[in-house]
Specification:
The complex is a heterotrimer of chains A (309), B (319) and C (412). With 309 residues, chain A is mainly alpha-helical. Chain A contains 16 helices and no strands. The longest helix of chain A is centred in the middle third of the chain and has 31 residues. Chain C has 412 residues and is an alpha/beta fold. Chain C has 20 helices and 13 strands. A five-stranded mixed sheet of chain C has the order 2-1-3-12-6. Chain C is globular and about 65 Å long. Chain C starts with a helix and ends with a helix. The chains are: A mainly alpha (309), B mainly alpha (319), C alpha/beta (412).
Chain lengths: 309, 319, 412
Amino acid sequence: MMTTETLASSAVTGSRIEAGPRGAKPKTLTIARVGVYVFLILAALFFLMPLWVMVVTSLKAMPEIQLRNIFQWPQQITFEPWLKAWDTACTGRDCNGLKPGFLNSVKITVVGTAISIVIAALNGYALSFWKYKGANVLFGLLVFGAFVPYQVVIYPLIIGMREIGLFGTFPGIIIIHTIFGMPILTLLFRNFFAALPPELFKAARVDGAGFWQIFFQIMVPMAVPITIVAVILQVTGIWNDFLFGTVFAGRENMPMTVQLNNIVNTTTGVREYNVHMAATILTAAVPLAVYFISGKWFVRGIAAGAVKG
Amino acid sequence: MAQLATAKEGGAVIKAASSSGRKPFRLSTLMSIVGTTPMIATAVGVFVICIIYSFVLSFTNSRIFPAFAAENFVGTDQYARLWSTGRWLISVNNIWFFGLLSIVANMTAGYLLAVFMDQRIKAEDWFRSIFLYPFAMSLVITGLVWRWILDPNYGIQATVRGWGFTEFAFAPLVNSSTAIYGLVVAGIWNGVGVTMAIMLAGLRGVDSEIWKAAKIDGIPAWRTYLFIVLPMMRGAILTAFILQCVGVVRVYDLIVAMTQGGPGISTQMPAVFVIQHITDRSNVGLGMAAATMMLLPVIVLLGVQAFAQWRANQVKEKA
Amino acid sequence: MKKFAVVAAMATALLGSTAVNAADVEVIHWWTSGGEQAAVSVFAREFDALGEDKWVDTAIAGGENARSATLQRTLGGDPPGAAQFNISRQFEELAEAGLLLDLTPLADSEGWRDFIRPAAILEVCEFEGKIYCVPVNIHSWQWAWASVPAFEKAGVPLPKNLDDFIAAAPKLQEAGIIPFAIGGEAWQIGGAMGVVMLSQLGKEGHEAIYKDRNLDVAGGPEVKHAIEIFKSLKGLTDEGSANRTWNDTTNLVIQDQAALQIMGDWARGEFAVAGEQPGVDYACIAGPAEQPYLDTGGDIFLFPKQDDAAVEAAQLKMASMMVNPQVQALFNNAKGSLPVRDDVDMSLADDCMKAGLEILKDPNHVIQGAGIYLTQDSIGQMDDLWAEAWSNPDLTVEEIQQRFVDIIASAE
């Protein structure tokens, strides 16, 4: 199956990148070399431009924004928009800024990541070593699930959540993230466990260890690297989610992305672009921090998990 | 599909797994089932039952609530209406156009970047970080930022005009025939880094002997990249391609944040169509018909792929 | 306000909820612009002042988004305590499914049927003889908002109808003014088209199409001319119109950058918040036609059933508060809408509001919006059509009209 193959290969993407370039070895600075750098620097400017625009816009006061020069560094730096975005920006009569959304997103992300990873690890482990009748069919369905457009299942899920009384609740949104994180995470863990030397498992079985013992005593400690990849994947995935947050989270648990969209679309009088940009940076801060801290792990994570959309 | 899923697995593992079934440790098998209850529930409950449920609903005239009484079944009326709805036709056109353009641009740019990154450059880590960081940001943020940059009155257009080029025009989002290009640019900004990373890994997976041979034969580097190395990277290309496809079919957040389907309905997409019809438009039947149409290409693609894989295995076995 | 509190308390007592615990009532609405927030704050303040109960505000920008949230949450079994809808058929399925709190006893005891006028706006709340929602204001789409300084600058008089306006547009353009301000959202385009249509069709034609589904009228010359006007308005807009919100657009008229906006009377709230004077800074042109009509659109609140008796008591209090004459005066004045009852102190009303009240007195000039006759599904199809016609210059007038006829023909 293509997914298994491609995704398995992408899980090792990161380590291959570290292998170093194989291109022709340059000896002197030729015109071609200059061309390479010019191209890369131009590309880099394109990628950095939006970040630059966000930052400078968020540091300007509104009159300066009216001057219509989005690239220019502010003549007078103000942190007012940041404070407002965080603390007092309004949606309707609620003027609490992004703060509540931030806390909600932290809660949803931490709990959602932990639960979905434990479940996915168990799945991967069971699928690698304890295959029962029909396990492969289930796995196939799950992989298929990675490709299903969310819109196809969202309506029945609302009904299902209602039936179990969890629609619009914290456990509800956690379950939703667990469901949609499961295909890709299970795949990750299954591929990881399947690649372990089978002797490990056999020896433990000979010693009489059972399903849970082997999982906790042997597999979990070994699975640390893949777990890091999974954590990065889930943290950015859940944090950046918008659709599920709007539908399933309920008012009390509204995540930051949803709140951001609300704040940006609420205008009283003049549109406060500086506040909007500050709010945007604040919302992006957590996944960006994860990205910069995790470095090369992140590359492995997204290559394996981009399929999540 | 399931058999294919295990095709790549190490034989030893399969043996270990299947032999464990024969051993008298039935309790462990039970534990395995218990341990994977959430998976069973998700695979069957969500990816089978929910999809069937949606599919059945598409043959009813349900409005907000599911209606399954005999008189609610209207046959294929919803499909007939769907395919005569201007907005749906526009959505379908858009997704093809957006999809093709994004994927081609993304793959081309991704490969180019990867090739340039592969030139033993200095500060490779820096460049990679820069090309990849947008992907860490959500599509909502991507959409908001680009909407701001492309704003006709404050964005690039206004800025460049302020520099004295008063005729300068670059505001794709304001015009219904160009708005979709704005979406493509934002999408590429967000996702090209991933393609680059996958392609780079692919490039470096190519045997270094190839390079030596090409050099001895005096083939210029660009030709080696294009005609020799590229065809050898099928795996990486396929991975990047699949990731792109899945992203395109699901495109929703970007539209909501950037154009909300406008100007007019010129950037509507199927995903937005579905969500709107199961909520404000109160026509779940039609929405589910649209959702089913979204699922169709996915199933066809996966089916074709599974078949190709199966054929390949057959050939291998014969040989 | 004291007297009102007594009435509310009586209403509660009447319904037998003796144990009045404090309750939170979450209200979903889409009032997020400046004028709208001033208005919704009236409700919130007055409700909080009634006692221990609290107004919990869930504002969601965009009517479509807010209604979607309400419907989705009702479907999911987690409905809000109160929710805003338009005077329309948007919520009929909720009432049919028995998910809404029955307000009939409260309405009977307070005599809603006697004082709410025109009766049509209460009728949309009725299902099988029971009342399930409260109309809180009357809004009409049939207005144009003009910047007086902008027309002065161009040296053209204020237009009396749309043909006048289109004739004056070149002079406005010469003076560096955007003649026609509109935001590119589908509902704004659709709404403006509704106004253009009515200005050509009149009451009879309007009812023939939407109420009687008369396809000859829908395919007739008035509709054709309306589409032609609509297409020529497109050429009079500015570049920034794509995806602009309605109040950002109104702001262009307030700042005299644009000359005219077709928008419902909720735009008046924005002028008020900006401190503009009617007749001096801006003009409200009813119709825009010599024979203006008003449609009785507007907002209603409905109250999804809750398990908690305390919440139910609070919901009834809120419903009662919303039609209270004093609250009606304060609320509608801030909102720019007309009150739902006659016995309201209108001394605060400005000239535009008074003009509206005057038209409202003549039943021949009052119509019901298309949303009363058609489902949201059909309304949405029409919005889509107008949006497509707006943004795609290749669609011919004939094609557009044919599609319009098809929508009317297939409407339920």
